[in-house]
Amino acid sequence: MEWKEFEENVRDVLELEDDIELAPELQLEDTDFWSSMHALLIMALAESEYDVSISGEDLRSSKTLGGLFELIKQKVV
Amino acid sequence: MAYFSTNNTKITGISSVVPKNVIDNNDYDYINEKERAFLIKTTGIQKKRHVDPGVTVLDLSAKAIEALLEKINWKREEVDLLVLVTQSREYYLPSSAIILHDKVGLPDACMAFDVGLGCSGYVYGLSIVNQFLQNPQFKKALLVAGDVSSVSINYEDKSTYPLFGDGTSVTAVEYCEGAEQMHFNIENNGKNHEAIIIRDGGAKNLFREDSIEIKNYGEGINHSRKDLELNGLDVFSFSIKEPPKNIKALLERTEISIDEIDYFVFHQANRLIIETIRKKLKVAPEKVPYSLQEYGNTSSASIPLTICHELKNNAKMKKMLFCGFGVGLSWGACVLNTEDIICLDPIEY
After folding, report:
1. CATH for B1-349?
2. Which residues in chain A touch residue B236, judged by CB atoms under 8 angstroms apart?
3. What is the mean pLDDT of residues B7-22?
4. Cβ <8 Å between B240 and A44
């Protein structure tokens, strides 16, 4: 699992325009686009694309997009 | 694990009743237009139905029973069992099923009791009535499943208000020599029981003056302790993880392939959950009917309501899988073959 592929998948499921930069250090809570509904979309992405289950606690403790990437990457078999 | 199969029963008919009053999520002005559009797109829930004040699940259910009994030609004195799956009980006690039993004129000898389950309740309820019908003294059973959730959701709680609608259903199940087996896989886990909860009004936290005090629990989430509270992240995580595992295990156990199943009728929680489960199981979209766009999440009524809404003319002689999941946490699936099932169009109350 590579960052670039993950970033593209996130951009796709969150329907973000190309001019929104998605860097690993991006603090999700500080962005304009992030909401609880977006968190669910990331969970759904992890489950359907990577066959990885993320708990609510996992998601609450991952503050950055890079943190989410690492979390999913660790769980990918 | 609670795998089991039941013999010699069939679903004879299904009816469903929803209130006339349509609530359109496009009019949900507690959140801004952008958030509203995103919520409707992601959940798929455009409209839902709410009862008028004072109308209860028993009012809806009595209408559903009367319509179904007439259509399938069952006499009241033939009904041996009435099971009511609801979390919108009339009273703390007595059991609402017994009041419903009287309301529709069933004989004293017809057993009646409540089952206090929500979104998983239809599958649980089917398993219960089927278990009774394994006993040769029981021939005909009515499973009533539904909720009036609108009385428990707060307009200023965006995590619940746009999702839940009111509705109920009745499923007639009867003994049928030689009918194909129904297979069940039923699970639950109480560790996360606070993920979906109404905190006050039970014996642990009796209803008190401050039960109606509204507090803030995050942006756009305001409710009291008598209102439904839903931890979106935890419930979502559970809903996309456990049901697919349960279904895979059931199909493996029964040696039924995904391809053999004509329809997968999922509890109508929200579109994102159902689509994630569907993709995980690699099920074709045309095998997964929806009713949530019209009725929202109708709790234990959602599976039979979806059948009545979407599969009414296409439900006979089909292999179907039902899967319910939610409050408890509780979840389960069943696989069955329909025969000459009669499904009524959703009826308005």
Report:
1. 3.40.47.10
2. 40, 43-44, 56
3. 98
4. yes
